[in-house]
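Researcher: Can you fold this with FE2/S2 (inorganic) cluster in place?
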Amino acid sequence: MSDITINIQNSDNTITSLVAPIDMGLSMMEFLKGNDYDIVATCGGLALCATCHVKIIKGFENLNSISDDENAMLDTLPNITNTSRLSCQLKLSEQMNGMVVKIMGDGLS
Ligand code: FES
């Protein structure tokens, strides 16, 4: 398999399904930005800005574990949820096929 489907839950609760390549080493942040989603990603993917915050609606258990740096950054967010991740720390992989995410941002703007 070289492509997966990522589903984005929009603010009006509709779902947009996108086909994502897993053989290019992209992070979910890079993929979402590349599809014109409004993610600032000030730090460029270093887990330092939290503007790439997403809530995982479905498929959270299939993701790589959270590093201390990611955890510390998520902890600073006013809009953190039980299934929050920094999308720059999620490298697109086969296990993510069919997941549903909602773009949250840092909750400050
Ligand atoms: S892009 Fe800055 S934390 Fe993900």
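Model: Folded with FE2/S2 (inorganic) cluster in place. Residues 3-24+38-103 form a domain with the Ubiquitin-like (UB roll) fold (CATH 3.10.20.30).
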